[in-house]
Design goal:
- By secondary structure, this protein is mainly alpha-helical.
- It has a three-stranded antiparallel sheet.
- Helix 2 packs across helix 3 and helix 3 packs across helix 4.
- The longest helix has 17 residues.
- The radius of gyration is 16 Å and the shape is globular.
């Protein structure tokens, strides 16, 4: 079990280093989706995010609304404005998923480097 936890921590820190976004809500959504397996209903994602922020008790819609609005504005900017997160079915879908590039943020090779690290510095592969 300790090895599994350490592997998860290693993948988490590798992905965290790769996240570069101006919107901190998007970063939180990406991390929550990764922890939830890559795809989930928006309420589950936002509740997970709010619990991570320390929200206790019943989470009401007015707690979730600012995050829903932030993601709606990200999805509305352009069809591919977020290269890491997308609605599953259509722009108004309540189910969100990590895109392929969003999943790649957390993929590491045997040397512990992410795919992005390899592209940025191809001579330092070992």
């Amino acid at each position: 079990m300790a090895e599994l936890v350490n592997f998860k921590a290693q993948r988490f820190s590798a992905g965290l280093k790769r996240l570069r976004a101006t919107d901190p809500v998007l970063i939180e959504i990406v991390l929550a989706l990764w922890e939830l397996g890559g795809e989930a209903h928006r309420q589950i994602v936002v509740d997970h995010l709010l619990r991570g922020r320390g929200e206790a008790g019943v989470i009401r819609h007015d707690h979730r609304a600012p995050i829903y609005e932030a993601m709606a504005s990200i999805f509305a900017r352009a069809p591919h404005s977020s290269t890491w997160v997308a609605p599953v079915f259509n722009p108004t879908s309540y189910r969100w998923m990590l895109t392929e590039s969003g999943r790649r943020l957390f993929q590491i090779d045997k040397t512990g480097k992410t795919e992005t690290d390899m592209r940025l510095n191809p001579t330092n592969r070992a």
